[in-house]
Amino acid sequence: MLISLTRIVTVGLTLAIAACATAPAVDLTPPPRKAYDAKTQLESGRRM
């Protein structure tokens, strides 16, 4: 009984570690800047 309980715990721990190891990487790059529209360019004086 103790051997089967140990195996169950070992398999559960192995599956938990495997699940954490295969998590997708987080993309930390910022989104691209929004282009100025005509009204914003006229109001701010900025040109692209």
Describe this structure in words.
- By secondary structure, the chain is mainly α.
- The model has no long low-confidence stretch (mean pLDDT 84).
Query: What does the oligomeric state look like here?
Result: single chain
Low-confidence runs of at least 5 consecutive residues: none
Euclidean distance between termini CA atoms: 73 Å
Chain-averaged pLDDT: 84
Structural class by helix and strand composition: mainly alpha
Secondary-structure topology with pairs:
Elements: H1 2-21, H2 38-44
Task: Offer a few descriptive terms.
48 residues, mainly alpha, rod-shaped
TL;DR?
By secondary structure, the chain is an all-alpha fold. The chain has helices at 2-21, 38-44.
